[in-house]
Write a structure and sequence with these properties.
Elements: H1 7-15, H2 30-40, E1 52-57, H3 60-67, H4 75-80, E2 83-90, H5 97-100, H6 107-112, H7 115-139, E3 143-147, H8 152-159, E4 164-173, H9 189-192
Antiparallel strand pairs: 1-2, 2-4, 3-4
Helix pairs in contact: 1-7, 2-7
Length: about 200
C-alpha cells in the first residue's frame, strides 16, 4: 500500500531530509517561524497540554550567551546558523489546560496537581512537539540541526527558569556547503515491529 502523501513531500519531510551541520547566511524570517508554528501546533499531545515553549536566538549577544553552553563540536554551527531555537518543556503547562481543554477544565487539578507528574508529562509531550517542530521546519523548505550536546543547567539558567526544562537546541536555515554527514543506517521494519 502506498501512502496518500505525495512522494515529493515524503522526500522533503523524511527520505531526503537530514540533520544540517552548515547553513547559508540567508535569514529565517519571523513569518517563516510563525508559519511553522501555525502548522505544527495541531500535532496531538495528551489532554492537548501543548507544553513546548520556544526561545528564538537571533541577536549576536544572545548567540554569544548560547554558544558558551554548547558542546565544543556544536559551537561553530550554532554560531553561524541564521536562527537558533531552544526548545523547552513548560512544567507549569497545566495552568493553560482550562483554555486548551475547555470541556474538561478540572483535568488541571485532577491529574496535574503534583510537580513530578507535570514534569514527566511535559517532557514526553514537549518531545513530541519538538519532533513536530523539526518536521515543520522541513515543510518550510528549511533544514534543521537538532542537538542535545550542551550544558542543560547552563542553558536553563541563561535563557529559561526553574519551570522550564531544555529539551534540545535546533539550528535552522537553508543548508550550506557540505551540510550533511553521510546518512546512517536505519533499522528494518522486521527489527522494529512485532505482531502479537
Amino acid at each position: 500500500m502506498s501512502l496518500v502523501l505525495d512522494p515529493a513531500a515524503q522526500d522533503l519531510l523524511f527520505r531526503e531530509a537530514r540533520t544540517a551541520n552548515a547553513f547559508t547566511d540567508e535569514p529565517v524570517t519571523d513569518e517563516q517561524v510563525q508559519a511553522i508554528y501555525d502548522l505544527v501546533k495541531f500535532g496531538p499531545t495528551a489532554f492537548n497540554q501543548s507544553p513546548l515553549r520556544v526561545v528564538l536566538v537571533r541577536s549576536a549577544e544572545g548567540r554569544e550567551r548560547l554558544v558558551q553552553h554548547m558542546a565544543e563540536g556544536n559551537r561553530p554551527k550554532t554560531s553561524t546558523a541564521p536562527l537558533v531555537a531552544i526548545l523547552a518543556a513548560d512544567n507549569e503547562f497545566h495552568e493553560e489546560l482550562p483554555a486548551l481543554l475547555p470541556h474538561f477544565p478540572q483535568v488541571k487539578d485532577m491529574f496535574f496537581a503534583e510537580r513530578p507528574v507535570r514534569e514527566s508529562a511535559a517532557g514526553l509531550n514537549a518531545a513530541l512537539q519538538a519532533a513536530y517542530f523539526i518536521i515543520g521546519v522541513r515543510a518550510a523548505g528549511l533544514a534543521a540541526g537538532p542537538m542535545t550536546g550542551y550544558d542543560a543547567a547552563g542553558i536553563q539558567k541563561e535563557f529559561l527558569d526553574d519551570d522550564h526544562t531544555p529539551l534540545m537546541v535546533v539550528n535552522i536555515g537553508k543548508p550550506g556547503e557540505d551540510a550533511w554527514f553521510p546518512r546512517s543506517p536505519r533499522l528494518s521494519f522486521d527489527e522494529v515491529v512485532t505482531t502479537v
